[in-house]
Amino acid sequence: MVDSNGPLGVFDSGVGGLTVMDAIMKRLPGESIIYLGDTARVPYGTKSADTVIRYAKGCAGILVERGIKLLVVACNTASAYAIDALRKELTIPVLGVIEPGARRAVAATQSGRIGVIGTTGTIRSERYQKTIKSLEPSSRVFCKACPLFVPLAEEGWTTGSVPLLAASTYLAEMLHQEIDTLVLGCTHYPLLKRVIAETVGPGVTLVDSAEATSEAVCNTLSELNAFRPEGSPSQRSFLVTDDPENFERTGRRFLNDAIDAIEWVDVS
Amino acid sequence: MVDSNGPLGVFDSGVGGLTVMDAIMKRLPGESIIYLGDTARVPYGTKSADTVIRYAKGCAGILVERGIKLLVVACNTASAYAIDALRKELTIPVLGVIEPGARRAVAATQSGRIGVIGTTGTIRSERYQKTIKSLEPSSRVFCKACPLFVPLAEEGWTTGSVPLLAASTYLAEMLHQEIDTLVLGCTHYPLLKRVIAETVGPGVTLVDSAEATSEAVCNTLSELNAFRPEGSPSQRSFLVTDDPENFERTGRRFLNDAIDAIEWVDVS
Q1: Which pLDDT does position A154 carry in this prediction?
Q2: ipTM for this prediction
Q3: Beta-sheet strand order (sheet of A33-37)
Q4: Chain B environment of A147 (Cβ under 8 Å)
Q5: Which residues of A126-162 are buried (b: 16+ CB within 10 A; e: fewer)?
Q6: Measured distance CA(B53)–CA(B191) in Å, rounded
Q7: Interface check B77 vs A, CB under 8 A
Q8: pTM higher than 0.90 for the full model?
Q9: A47, A161, A246 member nearest B40 (Cβ)
Q10: What whole-number distance in Å separates Cα of residue B89 and Cα of residue B11?
Q11: Are residues A32 and A235 in contact, defined by beta-carbon separation less than 8 angstroms?
Q12: How is residue A190 annotated by DSSP?
């Protein structure tokens, strides 16, 4: 039984998931949210499935202890590797970012030729490929890991020649494959949207899972009749596993709202 | 009392410290070495002092349990933040990479104008600046964090326009400051040596701490009369905190020797 008064839990490896939190806040301003960024062990995208699953279970456990009514795994790599393990272990609903993104891509494509970019872990897991194929078996999916996009976004190099050259190197092959839809399969990539759009041109629709995920959260709360009752104002709080100050500084690029009430939690 | 038969311990946040291990193996082929790469929590360079100190203590503890006679902290960020804490806690000698690198820079400079590049953590710690100033108070030190160099090296983008553009962006200001010596203050940077050299030109000497550190290890063993007695062949082994296979694959770029006998250890 879900307690409607409980907050939503949003879990990410670091700051990137704040783009997902942002979209949820816009769609569901009445909900309270606790965000957990595993900044002491970020990034997940370069790490193995076993390690990511272990970290995801630990972080989800901390959020569950805080009484969340639903868990959003805002990190694509954690969604790719750990969603099944989390669903098996937890009694609350668990939503990832991959299924909503895949659904939107399938809805957007005309030619059925879909590109997916993400971290090494996300692409290696083949989770996007499998999900898209299960939704639309006739579609063709072309994937590419783009490991430099995360550090570029975190460094703030989101315009200019370096990201543009990196994007054209990573995306050259995909353009030959004549995709008409490209899934930004990592929460950092929306920050490079302009550069990516310039590289792929106007004929390719970019799919950002943040908004699609907020829609899925809304649908799930609706199905469970678990929207927070009106009354006391909704609250936001942040848990991090490394220095709160760094998180506040980098996080500003990702969330269009104040980041305060940051608490350090020990996961080591 | 140091047991001469014990192995040397080399600790790094990931694969980068293999460049230091490589230099030690060349200088001291008779010594056994246990390498520990904290690949489950890599990188350290973006994380806070407290977190790096906690991780470094944990990793050092694992190596001490294996009977090492001396600890080399091959990671610049861990050397910058954690060397004092480790020396306080451990009874064996602890060597970092910063002091040897700083010594070599002071010996190399003619003009006394020294540049240092490293991770955000290493530069923020001001450890290089302080060490160089204590060795040669009249020197001037110019620092710059280059966060994209690690992912570029790990991605294997060590030649071509992207690393060249990144290098000229990071180093432009330093070149105006007319340095004649540049410390590569991160174990990954030697992989970008060619690009960095091209950017700074032939008038600037590049200092790589790996070799300087191996010399310091040799001197310490000599002072303690703790060289390994001749006899049974020396052994090398590797401990990692994430997937051994990934380590083996990426590690090849850093060590000119076989990487086998890799064992996973749990630090979470």
Answers
A1: 87
A2: 0.91
A3: A94-95, A70-73, A8-12, A33-37, A236-240, A262-264
A4: 151, 154-155
A5: ebbbebbbeebeebbbbbbbbbbbbbbbbbebbeeeb
A6: 26
A7: no
A8: yes
A9: A47
A10: 16
A11: yes
A12: G
